[in-house]
Design a protein that fits this description.
alpha+beta, 11-stranded mixed sheet, two-stranded antiparallel sheet, 11 helices, 13 strands, about 40% helix, elongated
Length: about 350
């Protein structure tokens, strides 16, 4: 992939407030970069997570520290008007409780020294077609589950020697297999959210006898930890019951478990709150890095545009550190500058119009 064109293209994604096209970048550079150059860059061999690591590695090495965090999460960027293929297809959106058409991507986000950088990614590819027995309709599915993708990505993080202390996930990645992988294979600890209906035992003896109960039936006072045993997890966990207030004033309950039995309830909650960084990443990637603004049509160009949007996010994140302004303040600054130029251009056009001879 042409690095110079990619650099210009990612700047274009950050600066743009509308559709991002090869023609648009060519016009922006007054033809210094041609439409064909941008198209060839996007159509070059599909970039993988390994390629991405080589790109972002120098920036990660600048911020890495032993108590860094790895946050695993997925998101869907809706693409309702794009032709369906193996990566632009229908996915179940838990936040909307319905299927949506778009691109489903999983990220491992590294968070250290107040900087969040994506260090690995996977785009869910539904390569198999099958007939749904209930509806009789043809559907797509992936050969690899999201949890399998997550473990592959965590393995890559470990292999790439990125130092971290905890893996943070929401309920969708809190499987027993993921817990075993982090603790036993990677020799790291985790803090994960659990569904309220997960069954747990309160002692090894209860576990051996199959005596389980749902988490939401336990009486765990706020601010305390409860030792629990999960089926399929060969080590004890500490459970914390967290009560939180939503934006609308309502309250909710979150159940957190950790493999680090030295942490207090307050420490568990404080560390887990940093998982919110991945939500900020998802939102900024979509709103500030033009993730959904490209009319690319093939899986290769769509994947390479996604990677370009990732690099645009990294650029904004690094600018945040340098300027002490958040992503939205930086984007607003660009918008205001563009507005000023447009306003000045309008005054020139009005001045030229006023100098034209009056017509009868």
């Amino acid at each position: 992939m042409n690095k110079e064109i990619l650099d210009l293209y990612t700047d274009y994604l950050i600066s743009s407030f509308g559709q991002t096209t090869a023609t648009g970048l060519s016009r922006l550079t007054n033809g210094d970069v041609s439409h064909d150059q941008v198209s060839r860059m996007l159509a070059s061999p599909k970039m993988t997570s390994k390629d991405w690591w080589l790109k972002v590695k120098p920036e990660v090495r600048k911020i890495e520290q032993a108590d860094g965090l790895i946050i695993v999460d997925d998101s869907i960027e809706e693409k309702p008007y794009t032709d369906e293929n193996e990566i632009i297809c229908w996915h179940w959106d838990h936040s909307k409780n319905r299927a949506v058409k778009g691109i489903n991507f999983i990220t491992t986000l590294y968070y250290a020294q107040e900087v969040a950088l994506p260090v690995a990614f996977e785009i869910v590819s539904k390569t198999e077609k099958y007939i749904d027995k209930k509806t009789g309709k043809e559907k797509r599915r992936s050969k690899i589950t999201k949890n399998e993708h997550a473990r592959h990505m965590l393995q890559a993080v470990y292999k790439n020697k990125i130092p971290f202390k905890y893996v943070l996930t929401d309920i969708w990645f809190a499987s027993a297999e993921n817990m075993r992988f982090v603790k036993l294979d990677l020799k790291k600890d985790f803090i994960m959210a659990l569904k309220s209906n997960r069954n747990v035992a309160l002692s090894e003896d209860d576990k051996s006898k199959g005596k389980y109960q749902q988490i939401d039936q336990l009486e765990v006072p706020e601010g305390t930890t409860q030792t629990i045993y999960l089926e399929g997890v060969p080590f004890p966990l500490h459970l914390v019951r967290q009560i939180f207030t939503n934006k609308d004033g309502s309250t909710g309950v979150r159940y957190l478990v950790t493999s680090d039995l030295t942490l207090s309830a307050d420490q568990i909650i404080t560390i887990y709150q940093k998982r919110w960084k991945v939500e900020e990443y998802h939102r900024s990637l979509k709103q500030n890095a033009s993730l959904a603004k490209s009319p690319t049509r093939t899986e290769t160009t769509q994947t390479n545009h996604f990677v370009a949007a990732l690099w645009s996010f990294v650029k904004i994140e690094l600018l945040k550190v340098q300027t002490n302004k958040n992503h939205y303040q930086l984007k607003a600054q660009l918008y205001f500058s563009a507005l000023q130029v447009a306003f000045e251009e309008l005054q020139i056009l009005k001045s030229e119009l006023s100098q034209l001879p009056a017509t009868a």
